[in-house]
Amino acid sequence: MGALRLVILLLASLCATPAAADYPDKPIRLIVPQAAGSATDTIARILGAELGKELGQQIVVDNRPGGALTIGLDITAKAEPDGYTICMGPIGALAITRHMVGRLPYDIERDFQPIALVARGHMLLAAAPDAPFRTVAELIDYAKKNPGKLSNASSSNGSPGHVGGELFKFMTGTEIVHIPYKGGATAINDLIAGRVQLMFESLNSIAPHAQSGTVRALAVTGAHRSPAFPDLPTVAEAGVPGYAAPTWSGVIGPAGIPRPILDKLNAAINRVIATPAFQTRFAATGDEAAGGTPEEFAAVIKDDSAKWAEVVKRSGAKLE
Length: 320
Fold this sequence. Notes:
The chain is an alpha/beta fold. It has 12 helices and 11 strands.
């Protein structure tokens, strides 16, 4: 049986070689499981424009929002594993909402192939312009003296901003009310208007408002300062030691992509990430280019999934 299996694998690899050599010979669909204009969509369009040049084929961005990010991922899981359907995999879809949905139509470890981590980012802890605090320490002090009177907006249940806020509450012993919105733009507008007092939101969505002063920037949520806001402390530096809620987004595909095609996609994405054009465009969003092997991306998914599973469990958050 061992010899027969070896012959079958050898024949399969020989048959796959011409297809891999010709790949890609038609446009590639890049599914985005969020709406146009979202943080993940922004990354997808920056990546797609440069990746298309690198591979010599058009990258067609296909937005499939809804279902707590499950619709786009489900389409990807059921696609042919030929390299012509790939998908943006943000931290929310791969490491957070999986712990909040009763039954997913796919298994993330079984049904997806991580291809490459594209970007690492930060959220901004922002306050309304008229909020009665100007630093994280003042925020914590105010929240402790006024339990339940502050509200934290997020773009949706299960978003990084939602669980990032929950982690902040656990670590500071504060009682802050979470208010989920149907999209970041509406939540940011209410923050600007003072209808909510706090928001943890991706830099590439909220940075322009922080730079213009229409919201008050308190800190960034990553493990180190953001190149876009070098003078702004991290939440950990500002008074919550050990706090870290970075974001990331990468490219995944359906399980079973032949290794030669997987390696070709991974190498192309890594080359794109290293280009000055890509680095410059990313610097403007506040995110940082990532890169690495499929195996390294898989390890990131595994580690952050375990971290956010514990936060979701403690918060009792669920999605229907």
